[in-house]
Amino acid sequence: MRNETIAIHAGYEPEATTHAVAVPIYQTAAYAFDSADHGAALFNLEAEGFRYSRIANPTSAVLEKRIAELEGGVGALAVATGQAALHFAFVNVADHGGNIVSVPQLYGTTHTLLSHILPRQGITGRFAESDKPEAIEKLIDENTRAVFAETIGNPAGNVCDIEALAKIAHAHGVPLIVDNTVATPILLKPFDYGADIAVHSLTKFLGGHGTTLGGAIVDSGNFPWAKYAERFPAYNKPDASYHGLVYAERFGRTAYIERARSVYQRTMGSVLSPFNAFLLLQGIETVALRMERHVENARKVAEFLRGDPRVAWVNYTGFPDSPYYPLVQKYLNGNASSLFTFGIKGGMEAGKTFYDALKLITRLVNIGDAKSLACHPASTTHRQMSAEQQRVAGVLPETIRLSIGIEHVSDIIEDIDQALETACPLSRLQAAE
């Protein structure tokens, strides 16, 4: 099936009891066992089924199957937020210690996770000088447990060369983990280019309505954990907490996602509620259509900004002179993201005035909503980073991040125009020139 059909149908057939067409909300904490032996088999991971909603839930299971099929993976785990998904994704490869090598262009909280939080758990985040494959390879050593990148950086908008990063990671015996939140599997399927694990903030484009937090980890099933037994003992040695179970032997291609659920979801409990899973499924049904409108609107807004004399610069990868334009053609079929940044003449103070003058476009830190959204990253999402870290991540003091929604594009442009006039009147600019 194709994306549009998968987004509506995958993972669910009308259930046998009521034949409900909509996915039911299974608002239950626990599930009855047929017998003591049945309960034991579920907890020993010997039988499929549901035992407790902290571990798995039928509504969430439909969401997981749908996301896994959209990405072309063998399984998925839905969790409470995108940040929880990233945390589980990292510790699930490095809970015996080691380092994660990352591109520098990251969402601010992800940078904090790798630079400050995970080191307290014995996992080091290493940031390359750029997103170039050769810069990544310089930092890989015998203690590296994964390479990490955002397929499209937030807010930098950079497009990573997934195929090249995957080849380098695999040459060193480690998986490539990618955050595919901004691209979504509608624009880019990273597993097609060698990525091993994909992470999503479902709060963003996949959910699409700005109402519901959620995250997901998707397993491609392609990384050979058994081949690198010494580097990944958690998959190849008996797990004492499960009576000696060996994940690579028991689960084969689904070892990664099954361990994420059985070890981390079960014990740390970052649970997505069934109601949130239901709401996210409603959003996913329209994601393919929304992405078309997001992309087209963003192109028109970027062109308007580039042609306006009040604007100093526009960082939009859909322009042919962007260094990422060839990667947009290769990986995104020419569909540049609706997330991009720009700066107006007058620097940070003019940028703040512009930001405060917006009327239709909402000022907040979310992205991927049906509504158009704006953010000043230096003072919000990336505030915890140093000025140099911000610069490398693609954030300047005057940077305004736009997430272009699906409203009529003329209304979006008119709002930007009036805010530009407030911050940097064209008459004043012409007089200065």
Automatic annotation (TrEMBL):
One of its GO terms (cellular component) is cytoplasm. Its EC number is 2.5.1.49. Keywords: Pyridoxal phosphate, Transferase. The keyword Transferase applies. It comes from the Bacteria. InterPro entries: Cys/Met-Metab_PyrdxlP-dep_enz, Cys_met_metab_PP, OAc-hSer/O-AcSer_sulfhydrylase, PyrdxlP-dep_Trfase, PyrdxlP-dep_Trfase_major, PyrdxlP-dep_Trfase_small. Its cofactor is pyridoxal 5'-phosphate. One of its GO terms (biological process) is L-homocysteine biosynthetic process. GO terms for molecular function: cysteine synthase activity; O-acetylhomoserine aminocarboxypropyltransferase activity; pyridoxal phosphate binding. The modification N6-(pyridoxal phosphate)lysine is found at residue 204. The keyword NAD does not apply. NCBIfam families: OAH_OAS_sulfhy. Belongs to the trans-sulfuration enzymes family. This is O-acetylhomoserine aminocarboxypropyltransferase. It comes from Bradyrhizobium forestalis.
